[in-house]
Amino acid sequence: MQPVVHLAVGYICYALYTRWRTGRIPTETAALVAIAGAALPDLLDKPIWLAGLVDVGRTIGHSLLFAIPVVAAVWLLSRVRGQQALGIAFAIGYGSHIATDIPWHVLSGDLHELGFLLWPLTPMPEYTGTKPLGTVPALEITVTTLWLEAVILVAGIALWRADGYPGTEPIVRAVRRE
User: Fold this and answer.
1) Any residues with CB less than 8 A from the CB of 14 and at least 6 apart, and which?
2) C-alpha distance across the termini of the chain, in Å
3) What does the pLDDT read at residue 160?
């Protein structure tokens, strides 16, 4: 899944959770934390891959061996500080990232590419890229994961807009202080 789509999925998942739990839209800080959690696996893995330190872009940040302790630590810290909602937001964001990297491999039958889930105990072969999901013969279009990702991205942006762009206010305040 494209990195920006993970942000949309993280927001969608947290916004749906918040509506279910409270009947409200996400708060500014919690929305930002959910989006940051959704971004973290790629923020950890893509730079070390681009620098040539590893052969693939899914290693430590995408591994459950790293993700579970990090999410648990953030949740415990947030609970100790009386900010449990932020720990939940982070867990939902991070978890949504890992969870949405799985289906493409399952649907395409490239199960060996799921090695990232237990990296470094299991090898992570080179990612084969965009997966075909089927064809629309009448239009001669091959439907790939990118089509579905585009729909998810648009839905995420639409929901975020409808909610009033929660998560932007802390960033705007920080920029204005400079």
Assistant:
1) 26, 30, 31, 34, 89, 92, 93, 96
2) 35
3) 97
